[in-house]
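Suppose a classmate hands you a notebook page containing two proteins, each written out with its sequence and a corresponding row of structure tokens. How would you begin to make sense of it? This section walks through that situation. The first entry is reproduced here exactly as it would appear on such a page.
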Amino acid sequence: MVDIARGPEVKRKKRIRQTIYAVVAGAAVILITVGVSRLKPAAPTVDGQTVWVDTVKRGPMVRQVRGSGTLVPEEIRWIPATTQGRVERIILRSGAAVSPETVILELSNPELQQSVLSDQLAYKSAQAQFESRKADLESGLLNQRAAAATVEAQWRQAVLQLEANEQLAKDGLVSELQLKQSRSQSADLENRHKIEQKRLDIAAQNINAQLAPQQAEVDRLRTLYDLRRKQLDDLKVRAGIAGTLQVVPVEVGQQVQAGTNVARVANPKTLKAELRIAETQTKDIAIGQKASIDTRTGIVEGTVSRIDANATNGTVGVDVTLPGALPPGARPDLSVDGTIELERLNNVLYVGRPAFGQEQSTVGLFKIIEGNQQDGEATRVNVKLGRSSVNTIEILEGLQVGDQVILSDMSQFDAFDRVKLN
């Protein structure tokens, strides 16, 4: 056979055909790339059994806050040592029931015992001196009374003599000179009587004034002696109130100073709850609000009585008084949970509180739009939250009554706008 040479026209057509094929293939690749880029990413799958789903409702909502704490006695007394001493004997230990006169421990202080004896002697000596001085003054007063009585008797005798001489003078039996002498003597004795009487009154009034300094010294020494005796008696440390002995923070042989707390007694019959509540939840708490305290063996109602002015480690202390009968087993230092009722809201849209989302904020929640929790699809929606409670929160925008939303932590799906449930 003889090969037939191809002409230039054939080669040109071949090149045109190859170029068309290349352009078509390139266009197909571009179209496929654009189409794939516009496809939505596949929705991740979530196990419906592991998520918490709640339905949006409308109606009344009770706003509450919750915290944990302990039961503590309302009446607690630390008992200090009134003077320094050495712990000789501890009679009772923690947990013992005590009355106001119950002796908890005994201290010793030899110097105080010596001071008591010295003060006792000083007081008795001052008292004896006072009595001696009082007797001297009273004796002097008696002498003054006797002198006054003597002058008064002489004056009255002179008055009688004057009356007799005046009668005799009328009969001419007594001279005028004798009558004048009788009158002069009577007047002189009357004047002396008045003077002695004034001296007697002054002497009587001056007795108390002269005894006052010594009386003050006696009172001072008696007060000091009584104080020392009380300090000596206080070496036997008593409870002071009826209740339960909680702590005896000293040991036998220990030296304690005046003012050192050596025991603590509490009245277990009147307890209150001391709760610690997150400071972000305390802005609406007010004194007088109702509260419920769970003691694990029962729930008792109470009232907020005190709120700490400052926060500590992110929490605020709130005291709840418990006027009613306490459940069995309630005792000091028992761990409890407390719920405080802030307010009751009527006709509000609400749902269970999501894992993430504070009140008065906007969060993204997954709302079920197809199927159900076991077989469905959820899409992310922005939800504006309002006031919150312990387990519920108010919905302001983004959801309607009957909507089902996932409240569990879905932060691992932040990159997706929808998820599939199975």
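The notebook's second entry, a different protein, reads as follows.
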Amino acid sequence: MSRIADFPELLTQRVDAETFAADVGAAGLQIIDPLLTNVARRYQAHGFIYDQLVARQPVQTISGQYPTFPKYYWFAQIADNSIEDRVETKEVGFTWSTEHYYAKKYGLKVSISDDERANAAPALRLEQNKTELLGLQQALAREIRLATKLRETGVTGGEIAKENEAAAAKKWSSSESNPEADLRAAALAIYEQIGYNPNTLILPYPVAYNLATVHGTDTFRNQMLYTVNGQEMIRLGEGILPSTIHGMKVVIPRGSQKIVANEPGATASAEEIWGKNAILAYIDPSAGWGTPSLIYGFQFMAPTVARWQRIDPDVEYIREMERVDEKVVAPNAGYVIKECL
């Protein structure tokens, strides 16, 4: 069987379809099948950060309640604890309430008919690509759900506390901006409300890149004096920014994009799933009971893949499904710096 290597001119110059047809003739076209080469082109969303942010809490029921406690009882000195002779010790207590979760079902499936399987060229990797598409679509939907919940409250679905959002004083793409002042105000707001320092900083790639490269008196690049741990910022490579800023782990959802157009043939217009905001958050690393971690995933069913065969028509189905509720349980443990770009 002929290969592209049998036509060395294709390896040394770029040609379009018409030029190629003229060069090798119709007979050449008949023996070269693009599906049988070792190269394929497929762009896809990636760089999802869902698993870095959502602590999954297994639950035994589809819906249920979890307790919430007023901050007053855990920060205020409820009573004077000094004890006088023959005076009864004062008693303290607390009130509590409940909030609800509902683990919604999310799932998609793909199918492969017997005829499709029999006629698909091996290089198409039909079953592998369909299965990967299934997993990608599930992950994409999961990421969009999470980003929507952690966006500003003015955006549909945003669940971070309304008072914990503010636009950047000046766009971080401007040499007159002062990102450190924006970050400081946001971090202090979280600390004052929950008593924990934010430990996570979510920066969409365009926001992170501007933060790292814009020059100016008060820009982040100037404040870092061009070095991070002795390494020039301009040579940080793929990292772009240091791994921590003000004690917060820097999380960059690099490549986490979605196409806005609804039709495959429509003009492709990609946008960042996480928008143009910076999000500060306290994420409990141990996911312990009673801690004010920003968001939890109440998971009734972990992502599960199932297969089944149908006869007449002869089709095999592959389905991925999960039941989960990503719930912002501590809305004051997050802060949105809006409109950074």
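A careful reader of the second entry would note: The longest strand covers residues 295-310.
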